[in-house]
Specification:
With 291 residues, the protein is α+β, with helices and mostly antiparallel strands. It contains twelve helices and eight strands.
Length: 291
């Protein structure tokens, strides 16, 4: 007899990043000397790679100084004021990108992570070869280098998120979305919700996907994710609705795609979470992105 094939690996990040994209854009490569400040701007995130040298980091105007030795990553998924301080005679070698999360600070991954993440490079499995390519492109001017660098930063970000998921598996004290995605029982359910939010998801079905009784599932979900399953699903549907509305989808179509009984029910749920109607939200979002 042939052995049963192993089940496919669960892609915890794919459905999230398919729905809510992140775009990396290189903005600095080379030495960084003196004091460099990064203002807190809503919707603007950063990923810095310290290649050589050593610097001190301050978060906020009154934060304590923290020394970061190279090689290291400094990841700011949300708007956080920070400053890099390093003596001009020593300098530091940097490659840095801004990150545009769809929805800004409301992006599910951005909202689930700490405001500042500092990691040594060797804490991220497989990152070394990616950084070798990144630095090689940054060190030489070639056709298409900017495009290659932006895409390599996308790869670095995914590798960092994988490492943070692995940390979540090892730290049972954590709660929230990343902890849920790291949980062996909840990860399949959350991934299914992210992939198909418009399907019917009664508690019994969610518990079955997680392989738990309804009571054990409800308790585990609330403890690990920090909210009830129905509240999480409702919030996820509205967050997805925002991306659909921003793309120009009609309100009635969005309501139907996401499993609401009609436009009126969708509008009530949307207003409860976002503080305005879907049409008001879309008009506001359009005015904020207009040139």
């Amino acid at each position: 007899m042939h052995p049963e094939p192993s089940p496919p690996a669960l892609d915890r990040l794919g459905p999230l990043l398919d729905r809510f994209r992140v775009r990396a854009t290189l903005f600095h490569a080379g030495a960084l000397c003196g004091v460099t400040r990064f203002a807190s701007e809503p919707g603007r995130a950063f990923l810095h790679v310290l290649r050589r040298g050593e610097l001190q980091v301050r978060h906020g105007p009154d934060g304590a100084l923290r020394t970061v030795p190279a090689p290291a990553l400094l990841f700011y998924p949300r708007a956080v004021e920070h400053a890099f301080i390093n003596p001009p005679e020593d300098g530091a070698d940097f490659v840095c990108a801004t990150l545009a999360f769809d929805g800004g600070d409301r992006h599910p991954v951005a909202a689930a992570l700490p405001a500042a993440v500092v990691l040594p490079v060797d804490a991220v499995p497989g990152l070394g070869p990616t950084l070798d390519l990144l630095f090689d492109e940054a060190d030489r001017t070639r056709c298409g280098s900017r495009v290659v660098l932006d895409r390599l930063f996308d790869v670095v970000l995914v590798q960092v998120l994988r490492a943070l998921l692995a940390e979540g598996r090892e730290d049972e004290r954590r709660s929230g979305l990343m902890a849920g995605l790291a949980h062996p029982r909840l990860a399949p359910l959350l991934t299914a919700l992210h992939r198909a939010p418009g399907e019917a998801w009664p508690l019994a079905r969610m518990a079955a996907v997680a392989g738990l009784s309804r009571s054990a599932f409800a308790e585990t979900f609330a403890r690990v994710v920090g909210t009830t399953p129905s509240a999480y699903l409702g919030a996820w549907r509205i967050d997805v609705a925002c991306t659909e509305l921003r793309a120009g989808r009609p309100v009635g179509v969005v309501a139907d795609q996401l499993g609401f009984s009609g436009a009126a029910a969708f509008s009530r749920a949307f207003r409860e979470r976002m503080g305005c109607s879907p049409r008001e939200w879309r008009a506001r979002a359009s005015s904020e992105t207009a040139p």
